[in-house]
Design goal:
It is a single chain. The chain is mainly α. It is 64% helix and 0% strand. The chain starts with a helix and ends in a 14-residue tail after the last helix.
Length: 77
């Protein structure tokens, strides 16, 4: 993941960064929605229901090479 973020730093332009920032809510929703049904079909209703309805992350964080989302269950979970 860090390598992909480093690669992005080499090619992302200010215009592309602005476009991604504007589209992040739609990109997140397009990833979230098709994930929910398979989770439910495999008995993971709580996991599906726990997916936030809106993107909880900032683009700047997603692009930082040392950033990972925090776990609700604590470190290492």
């Amino acid at each position: 993941m860090a390598r992909a973020r480093n690669d992005l730093e080499d090619v992302i332009t200010p215009t592309l960064r602005r476009h991604l920032r504007e589209r992040l809510p739609q990109i997140y929703d397009q990833a979230r929605r098709p994930t929910m049904d398979p989770l439910r079909r495999h008995g993971e209703r709580a996991a599906a229901d726990a997916l936030p309805g809106t993107c909880p992350y900032r683009l700047a964080d997603l692009l930082r090479h040392d950033w990972l989302p925090s776990s609700r269950h604590g470190p290492g979970s």
